[in-house]
Write a structure and sequence with these properties.
The radius of gyration is 19 Å and the shape is globular. α6 crosses α7. It has eight helices and ten strands. By secondary structure, it is of the alpha/beta class. The chain binds adenosine-5'-diphosphate and magnesium ion. Pfam families: ABC_tran (PF00005).
Length: 254
Amino acid sequence: MLKIKGLDKRFLVNGREVVALQNIDLDVKKGEFITIVGHSGCGKSTLLKIIAGLQSQDVGTITCHDRQILGPGTDRGMVFQEHRLLPWLTIRENVGFGLQGIDRKEKERLVEDHLRLVQLEGFGDAYPKQLSGGMAQRAAIARGLVNNPEVLLLDEPFGALDALTRIQMQKEVLRIWEEEKTTMILVTHDIDEAIYLGQRIVVMSARPGEIKAVIPVESSNAKDRGSTEFASIKKRVLRHFFAEEEWAAVEYAI
Ligand SMILES: Nc1ncnc2c1ncn2[C@@H]1O[C@H](COP(=O)(O)OP(=O)(O)O)[C@@H](O)[C@H]1O
Ligand SMILES: [Mg+2]
């Protein structure tokens, strides 16, 4: 469904060229859950922003259902690390903000359905500052899904949450994905999160950001953080971040 081919992106920082992305190729199937993992600064956010149409690539193409992505569109929803809800609007108004060109009744129905989906029914009249971090992120997910996008792009969506809320939100996102069957691409620097959520894990290298490996998570046992499958996938992912001579010590520690 989503096809990324030969993508390059450079930035000019103080007159110096920074290669943010190099030769990125990735095909994402409809309904798939892809996680992208890599060091801070490896170009993960840049890649998501290019898919969202918020930034443009220097070289390469991205198509969604064979249509070139040339700018933002309602076929792609986005959730950021900070919820980015508008503080002067209620949760209901925030979720419905991007819904345009449909009648009021239909809009109300869609907003209520999505508040229910993220288990925020009863909080429609609250303002963002009245919600906890986890609840605000649920609202951001509802806002991202309300247009029924082809793909939801999540950029370290739980990065600002405490560890327990984070685990709870990971479960919630899996439930929502199973219910809605929306294609999801989630970026994280947390390897456990990438394994828990992804059907395929895209491992990126540090600058220049390239895809080092795509690791499938085949067995459903791998979703159990205590399983040997989980540990073995974790090793496969970690292996890409360490040099040969460092690996023995790292492998021993995990
Ligand atoms: N708007 C920008 N202008 C200049 N450099 C940028 C810009 N956005 C990102 N970069 C640079 O591109 C690289 C990748 O950034 P980013 O995609 O944010 O990484 P990540 O999300 O993996 O932490 C970094 O070196 C960053 O400094
Ligand atoms: Mg980032």
